[in-house]
Amino acid sequence: MPQPAAETVVSRCLVIGSGIAGLQFALLAAEGGPVRVVTKKESRESSTNYAQGGIAAAVSPLDDFETHVQDTLIAGDGLCREDVVRKMVEAGPHLIDRLLGYGVEFSRDPGGGGFALGREGGHTQRRVLHCRDLTGSEIEGRLLAACNAHANISVDEDHMGLELVRGSEAGLSGSAADRIVGARVLDRRTRRVVLHLADAVVLATGGCGKVYLYTSNPDIATGDGLAMAYRAGAELRNLEFVQFHPTCLYHAEAKSFLISEAVRGEGAVLINHRGVRFMSRHHPQADLAPRDAVARAIDQEMKASGEPCVYLDLRHLERAMVESRFPNLVAACRRFGLDMAGEPVPVVPAAHYMCGGVATDLEARTTLPGLFAIGEVACTGIHGANRLASNSLLEAVYFAERAAVAVAAEPRLFGPRVPVGIPAATLKPAAETVVSPVVVEHDWDELRRVMWDYVGIVRDRERLEIALGRVRAIRRTVETVRRRVAPTPELVELANIALLGELIVICALSRPESRGLHYTLDHPLRLESAVDSVIRRGRPLGTESCWDAPEPSLD
Ligand code: FAD
Ligand code: SIN
After folding, report:
1. CA angle at residue 328 from 327 to 333, to 5 degrees?
2. 420-442 residue pLDDT tens
3. Which of 190, 277, 370, 454 is packed most tightly, with the most Cβ within 10 A?
4. Alpha carbon of 456 to those of 244, 349, 464: distances in Å?
5. Ligand 2: distance of its center to the CA of 12 in Å?
6. Is the CB of residue 245 less than 8 Å from the CB of residue 216?
7. Considering the entire predicted model, what is its pTM?
8. Which of 179, 291, 365, 515 is catalytic?
């Protein structure tokens, strides 16, 4: 029997991404067989690692599931899938228990009582479990330690997913020919392309904040999973709903530095350059309104005043409380020469979270057999048109669990050996021409600036059409280059953000209303019928009645 080619790896399950979603999934799925996690940089590097505010769950005796459900639905502005929201919210306490089991140390009330629960925009109750202001780092560290200690899990750092692979490309026939059975993965250290084959492939690649010039996201957030899924023919939904976080630090030397909404949850308020509070003029929930409303209000204040930022004011809060609750933020501000507790902190909105994504069902299945999506890369129906703060980490662990159950039932396609007859071309790296870094950098900057200037918090058709022309031109140039040179991480990421930029603009142009995070001057009001925007390669863009559309056929 022919031996597997050196560049081929076979596992029961391939996970792409090592944030909260990928790691939680790996830990559950590993009970059923070997799981391979590939991750494009150091394994910790993920949005998860930078999460501050915390993870929402109705665990307080003063709270209940129904209130958490209603807060989520209100924030989602009519596009959440209520049955899914309800299931996730009800699973909350048990998902938190599991995190505790991995050793996550959530902050406790002083005196050794219950959990210290924070509050954030859109929440009518205190329900955000946190580890002071370093929640993500604590969760990521504990999950990684558990994965590294598990005999059935291997985590390959510096391995970047490039493209998904169908069964037909791997020499499989019959119903397996149409399944997603693996991915081409670039080993960044050797620059070789490795073929990973698996019975199930799980995308856990996070979001795409880097599509925008200013973002809270780390550099890994280039929408790779979204782009791979789109190119493979999966359905994507609601990409126009890009969440802008209201309060990123405005400072020449601060890159992507978020000031958590939990700070407003403890009483901080937004003021303008004249020192005047403004949120109560914009929303009945004032400084704790849902994020879309706060970001729009800040945008409006900045445009009206011509000032480059607004300010977060904590001066009325007790310094000792601020320093013990937010030690990381206080220290970071100090590094930038700011006294967080003692002076107004300059802040601006920045791209933060992709509410749309690869469409999945309750089992995290995408529209392509064999392919699952979990975490920020997925559009599960939880967030609708605007995510409620701190629901993202909860959604990630909830769907990691659902996916692990579903994957266990997937058919076995591969034994320990690679099937005979994998076309050699599948294993070959691309031609060895190298593209100039200057070209990549120029297009990278231009694309992100166009998205920031024309596809931001407030939109209109004319500006979206200008953006479409420019972004499409960049995307086409990059695609042409990409076909004739060896894949470098930089070029692949540029191709992915260019594709995502174009898809976001197309979805934004298709929405004939303002809703949640999509606000357009052409249609300032919400239309009554709730619809998702649906996009898939090779099929014209359509909007379909939320989640009752017929199963899309596979091309
Ligand atoms: P990530 O944690 O982003 O992980 C993605 C993984 O995929 C990374 O390991 C990355 O390297 C890898 N990857 C990407 N592309 C490839 C590729 N091509 N090949 C291989 N690997 C790849 N949400 C909350 O609920 N509460 C909060 O308090 C909160 N605070 C936040 C603060 C900040 C600064 C940011 C940026 C986000 C915050 N969010 C918060 C959002 C939340 O952190 C993310 O939505 C969530 O962590 C996403 O988890 P994930 O596992 O889906 O993706
Ligand atoms: C924050 O801490 O403000 C971010 C919370 C979130 O994105 O859910």
Report:
1. 100
2. 445 444 444 444 556 666 778 88
3. 370
4. 8, 10, 10
5. 34
6. yes
7. 0.95
8. 291
